Amino acid sequence: MFSRLRSDIQCILERDPAARSAWEVLTCYPGLHALVLHRRAHWCWVHGFKWLGRFISQLARWFTGIEIHPGAQIAGGVFIDHGMGVVIGETAEIGEGCTIYHGVTLGGTSLYKGAKRHPTLGRNVVVGAGAQVLGGFVVGDGARIGSNAVVVKPVPAGATAVGNPARIIQAEADVKREQAASQMGFSAYGVTQSDDPLSQALRGLIDNASGQEHQIALLWQAIENLSGPSVAGGRDCVPKDAAREECFEAEKLNQLVGK
After folding, report:
1. pTM of the prediction?
2. Residues above pLDDT 90, as percent of the chain
3. Where are the domains of the chain?
4. Dmax of the chain from CA atoms?
5. Which CATH superfamily is domain 2-170 in?
6. For residue 58, with 0-12 CB atoms within 10 Å meaning exposed, 13-18 middle and 19 or more buried, which class applies?
7. How far apart are CA 206 and CA 249, in angstroms?
């Protein structure tokens, strides 16, 4: 028990520059208090003492402002920073090294008892202040969820989710992986932005601009071919700064808006 407590204190000292001593963390950090009480409540829950587990979690909520259902599974090295208003549901799972800021909800969207209703966070996930992660899906290892984001679909490992509804900004390696998966006719993570009108509008503008640049490049190439050496003035009639090749990075822009 004491080794786990020392580990919790150490992870806070490493991740919070405002923490000045182990004593300060032990006495003044509600995130630490909530996790310590949650472990007692979770032990009661899994050993059949359901009411006692709920009662301990309710006490923790009164003292810390952090509501963690005793059925939630939380690994070591988790840091709940500030913590006021954090809500973690019954079937939520939080991996090692995660950081959760105030106002975060790990909530459910299903009313079926016994079902996996709440999200699973992988290792080293960061959830920004006010973010809402709703549903029984997985947030991959090392992912980041921006402040006030509303996430209702899986987030790939190493990616960042921002906005409402959240759009996925993937790391370069994940972009290549998703491109390869799309060529085979499926999405490796089941992520789609078809219900985001902002992304749809931006993607339409990007595709239109890309198409126009393609047409302009073709026109300059055709003019260059027509203005051969046999024609008076030759190729000199084509401006030197004419764009003969496309340079519009439509794919990269589409990734930024969540394609």
Report:
1. 0.65
2. 49
3. 2-170, 197-256
4. 95
5. Hexapeptide repeat proteins (2.160.10.10)
6. middle
7. 9
**Digit-coded pLDDT (tens) for 206-221:** 677 777 777 887 887 7
Query: How far is Cα of residue 91 from the mean position of the Cα atoms in its chain?
Result: 19
Q: Do residues 106 and 125 lie in contact, with contact meaning Cβ atoms separated by under 8 Å?
A: no
Tokens 């009411």, residue? 51
Distances in Å between the Cα of 137 and the Cα atoms of 106, 109, 151, 154, 178 are: 11, 11, 10, 5, 18
Residues 6+ apart with CB under 8 A from 148: 128, 129, 130, 131, 164
Confidence of residue 240 (pLDDT cuts 50, 70, 90): low
Q: For 156-164, what is the mean pLDDT? A: 89
